[in-house]
Amino acid sequence: IYAGWFGNTTPTPGYIQANFSFLESQPFNGLVVYLRNQSMTINASIGVMTNTPMSYPDIASVLDPIRNLPFTQLVDNFGFVIGNDPPDFFDDWSVPIQNFANVAKAAKDIGLKGICFDNEQYHAPWGDYSAPTKYAATKSLADYQAQARLRGKQVMEAMAAQFPDIAVVTLHGPYVSEPDAPASLQFPQWQSGNELLGPYFAGFLEGAGDTASSIDGGEIYTLRTEEHFQASYDWRRTNLASDAVNCAFIPPSLRTVWEARTSISYGVYDVTFAGASMTPTIMRSTLANALRRADHIVWYYSEAYSYLLPSSQGGAPAQWVHAVKQARTDPGAVAAAADSSPAPAPAPAALGTPSNL
Fold this sequence. Notes:
Layout: E1 2-3, H1 13-18, H2 20-25, E2 32-34, H3 44-47, H4 56-63, E3 78-82, H5 94-110, E4 114-118, H6 141-162, E5 167-170, H7 197-208, E6 213-216, H8 226-239, H9 252-261, E7 262-264, E8 266-269, H10 280-293, E9 298-301, H11 318-329
Parallel strand pairs: 1-9, 2-3, 3-4, 4-5, 5-6, 6-7, 8-9
Helix pairs in contact: 4-5, 5-6, 6-7, 8-10, 10-11
């Protein structure tokens, strides 16, 4: 699925409606839809995870331009929600929980597959215990981990109540909060400052039950070879919830169902990242290897070029589009280019940049 919301061309429902034929010609199975209306008076993508109510009618009105579009290629579309500035985990969460329920209902009614949740802390340190958190003087890290998991569970249960088979892709999976996530497997060493993102994801998985899907998005942009992707898959699906790792925010009751309920995804990025080079040739092999190892979804994040425009109008050059097309049909692993071996993970300050808001 194409996660290309960065820059001046944004896949809002109005934009998708106006450029439907071209977008259907691109080599993707779906789009991450930016939930903002054309007049820019309603922005559910940034509004859902706040203490400001976002009504179902307002969110539905944002999605209305794509209501009756005859999608044939782009059939796996997701609404985009950004981690913003929710209340402290120990304060009243009734408004954001209802907002998530409303966006889930609107997504279901319009025919989306679910939500793509960008959980980076662009607007406020909502997942950072060391910020400090509001009640740090009386609440320990373990207390906050348990409460963050509870809030994630409540949010997912509220979404699933409106959309029972909703799929929620969380871009940074719980590895981002686990101190023992091995750097040798290219997990970013960003646990400090992100201590509560993993517990919140664990709550998502706990609240998903047997019908909804909680997907570890795998925003690990340095993976290249088939072996890289397989090693990441195995650790995230099996090792993280094992007694050997003894993850502090995954209780024993959740460890027993973790492997069965977790879906593993990968993000692929179209620029050089942390010393891992990117060219059309490298993109083809990287994307092919990711597609072979993901359970259901690979999301393609672009900042070098937009795939929402033809190349004649400033969109991605033909060789990049062709690389994506070829990766989708490659029958076997394509050897990664020699210069694609990743450097060590970047420092925490490199964790993302705000999306086009």
